[in-house]
Amino acid sequence: METRVWHYDGRSGERRMPVLVPSADERRFTLQGDGADPGPYAFADLEPHGTSHHERAFGLKGRPGWRITFLEFPPSEIAVQLPKPARYGAWIDRFGLWRSAGVLAILAVLVVAFTLKLPPLLARLVPQSVEQRMGRLIVGNLGTYACASPQGDAALKALGARLRQDGDVTIRVVHAPMINAVAFPGGQVVLFDGLIQNAKSPDEVAGVLAHELGHVAHRDGMEALIRQYGLQLLLGGFDGNVSGYGNALLNARYSRKAEAGADGYAIGRLQAANISPLPTAALFARLAEQDAQPGNAAVMMTYLSSHPLSTAREQAFRASAKPGAAYKPALSPEQWQALRAMCGDSPATAP
Amino acid sequence: MQEQAERGAFEFYGAWREYAPIAFTNLLLTIVTLGIYNFWGRTRTRQYLWSRTRFIDDRLEWTGTGRELLLGYIVVVVLVFVPVAGLNLLVGALAMRGTPEGAAAAGLLFFGLYLFLFLLGGVAIFRALRYRLSRTYWHGIRGGSDDQGFRYGLSYLWRMMLGSAAFGLLVPWALVTLWNERWNAMSFGPYPFRSGASSDGLMRRYLLFYLLPVALVIGGIVAVALSLWFGVTPQTAPGPVAPPLFLIVGFFVFYLLFLALFGLISLSFYAAYFRQAIGALTLGHLEFEFTARTKDWLKLMLGTVALVVCTLGIGSIFIGYRNWAFFIRHLRAYGTLDLEQFTQSDTRAPGQGEGLFDSLDMGAF
Prior knowledge:
Chain A is α+β, with helices and mostly antiparallel strands. Chain A has helices spanning 76-79, 90-95, 97-125, 128-140, 150-162, 193-198, 202-218, 220-229, 231-235, 242-250, 256-272, 278-292, 297-306, 311-319, 333-340, and strands at 3-9, 19-22, 28-32, 41-42, 46-48, 57-60, 63-70, 146-147, 170-174, 181-184, 188-192. A seven-stranded antiparallel beta sheet of chain A has the order 4-3-2-1-7-6-5, with no helix packed on it. In chain A, a hairpin with an 8-residue loop joins strand 5 (46-48) and strand 6 (57-60). Chain B is built from eleven helices and twelve strands. In chain B, the strands form two sheets. A nine-stranded antiparallel beta sheet of chain B has the order 1-12-11-10-9-8-7-6-5. In chain B, strands 2-3-4 form a three-stranded antiparallel beta sheet. The interface between A and B is large, with 36 and 37 residues. Chain B: InterPro entries: DUF898 (IPR010295).
């Protein structure tokens, strides 16, 4: 039986219908009749060109447009020599669709997980000097709100010293009614006056400050910025969008893990400084309670939204208290007065 | 020698049930590869669509590969998008400096960047068409172009700028002349495409499209003025509650009507533009015609919207199929094609795919 094929030679558009004749060793074939270039051609040089196994169209390696198409199923001695049509792509065909999809899905999850893990890794890679310059730029933006008095500054310094802040941390108080505190990059910690006025004792302020120092030590601020601004931050130089970065950090929502880490750090610092953690726990409890009252919501929102509270966190502080320990207040009464008076006596916390 | 009857030079005989396995496996593989498979998926879709498209006595064949699409994409990202992003940051840095010179330099750079991207858009349209023709085989013969498309990019830039500059009135002229320029640079086999479309018949529909918003604004002002003139004095008595609600509902209805009418008119312009442009296209002794009227386009659009909405978005994997079927079903060819003289194209086949086009996210044709 002779095997006729449709044939284009890739040079002219004329269709020929030669007979495909395999050679004696069945590795090659010739195309005979109807004016076709007889060849010989190697079966190994054929490339599948059909889109399904119903279409038996083949091209020839290195000859664009050269085609043979079997009009009916070729005899088996020819069929075994023909390459299989590609379906999804070479790699996927080799392993099968479902197995490939499974493996690729696992890989995809890994890639996504790695990408999510990238900000903390990148944050560690930013040089300390760059981070400090950036922090100074952002806080410099708050300049007009900054509060200062000799006694107040001394009190802040004393509080920092008790919590064993490193030399690279700068603590400032700004005149704003929000109950909030923020750790900017480069060890720039800002306490809002609203927090100090709302606090019942210096120990509460110490607890919050220690928490922010925890964010500084873990470089959470840098991580939050990289999360939000990504490549733009790393490539663009930091001067471009200073107020934007400041705002982003004011509204930053750290991960639960970062918050727990900062809490752990704070508890450790309070313990080392012999400051009671109970007032801080009480502050958390009070904030949560006040937030439940509609009238206070606006004031409380800030701190609560950026520091998602949970009873677990409050309890962590409470549990760290050692029964019978002789805790010393974080600041002396005079120092505490000086800190409270730093922003003048304007009613920062109206309610 | 082939003589073609009025109908039937082109035929699309695909079936969506046959295409569905391709579409769904493409979707699956695209998801699990985080989008990378998209290049191979598009290739598979085209292989299917082309292979189910008959022209005269044989099917079309798509020979592009996913790898060259990916390569094209990478080339564009490295050569165009990374430098442009860098320049963008430079613009930002200059603007932040706050000095007048800095601001001027930033403005100039930004304007230059904008012009450059616009030009690239033109190059992308040209090169995508060239790539598609060079990967389309029929009777073992392919199409292509010897032009790289950069001159077309320049032409695209100035024509579109001029078209919009004259209050947008020259846009039809720009579209049609660009269509001619693009297709006159293309060929299939030994024959160059020739396109001599003119924008003459298009102006009426375009003016409708152009003047509708103006007319409606004037009409709206007149209506409001009239209602104030006649309405307000007697209506002060019933109370102030009724008018606002009436106004809001009225405005909403008016807005919806405006959108529908505006969409319809722009569709009718689009339909006329396509009929005119394809109707003026020849290849050797072949002439082409596109028969889709506004009504057909409207049916296509509404069908696509219904498909996507009713399947909660999953139906969008069939949009390409629908568009191709629509295109081929309304495409006609007349005339003769001498197969003995229909020899292989000697244009240089581009090495990689339509990366520029992809990354600028532009539609076909």
